[in-house]
Amino acid sequence: LGDSQDDQSLSVEDDIMDANLSSSNETIEQEVEESALFGDAWMDMLDNVKLGGRWAPDENVGGNTEKIAIVVPYRGRRAHLKMFLLYMHPFLQRQRRNYGIYVVGQRGQELKFCKGILFNIGFISVLKDDSYDCIIFHDVDLIPEDDRNVYTCGSTPRHLSVAVDKFNYTLPYESLIGGVVAMTPSQYRLLNGYSNLFCGWGGEDDDMHKRMEKHKLQIWRPEKDVGRYTMFHHKTPPENTERFSLLKTSDLRANKDGLNNVGKVRAKITSMSRQRLFTHIVVNVDKRR
Ligand code: NGS
């Protein structure tokens, strides 16, 4: 993609920075504070991870210099986040990935969880933080079971979580794209990211699938015996009752509702801090205007 796309994302980036951005030491969401999450023994196991949840192999394996960011939307799933981090760091290291883990938390409890907004803000923030080649949009409750499921990007979006235990390791429907998806920055920009309008459980991924169809982007998937995941049990969060009507207008909204208006419309970053096992970005989502 040309320069115009980059220019666009730069102006979006300015929009999402809150004028009152707090210092990096301020921790807003107490519940994901590292000390509360881990005891010393666990931390020792992962002491090779660099501050902010970064790691890279010493060697330049086969000339692979791809840098990947794992973007994890988060609110109030402390036990899941703990298990996620304890599992994902060793998994990504076994795959010799050059990576960073970013937890993007939604501040406050008054609004439903707006996963698309958190993905868009996470995308902009990680690229501001470093020159990532590949962004992996990852639910906190999914753990890959097979090391052959390589966390990398390709010439087309890669849907990695194709066989989840909850669905007896089958894909419940062909257009499902939720769970774990890997995209390059230019693929994500082409799609204008996720819609900012889906808050509450369900539908934001189906809307993303429609964006991929609109742009005729094929979806790459691993074999079912490789793309296996364990999902942590949880109650389904409050659903998005508007999702079916929103999905009727997906094509009409795609170019104007997403990455290019996330800052203007709905959300600001209130803090970004380096924890031992992840970089923590906290987002304030406004009431819908
Ligand atoms: C569909 C949802 C998707 C969701 C999928 C699997 O019904 O957003 O279930 O959900 N679509 C709609 O509601 C329109 S899961 O059980 O993995 O949480 O991703």
UniProtKB/TrEMBL annotation:
GO terms for molecular function: galactosyltransferase activity. Its EC number is 2.4.1.-. Keywords: Glycoprotein, Glycosyltransferase, Membrane, Signal-anchor, Transferase, Transmembrane, Transmembrane helix. It comes from the Eukaryota. It is found in: Membrane. Residues 46-153 form the Galactosyltransferase N-terminal domain. GO terms for cellular component: Golgi apparatus; membrane. The keyword Transmembrane applies. The keyword Glycoprotein applies. It is a single-pass type II membrane protein. Pathway: Protein modification; protein glycosylation. GO terms for biological process: carbohydrate metabolic process. Residues 158-235 form the Galactosyltransferase C-terminal domain. Belongs to the glycosyltransferase 7 family. Catalyses the transfer of galactose onto proteins or lipids. This is Beta-1,4-galactosyltransferase.
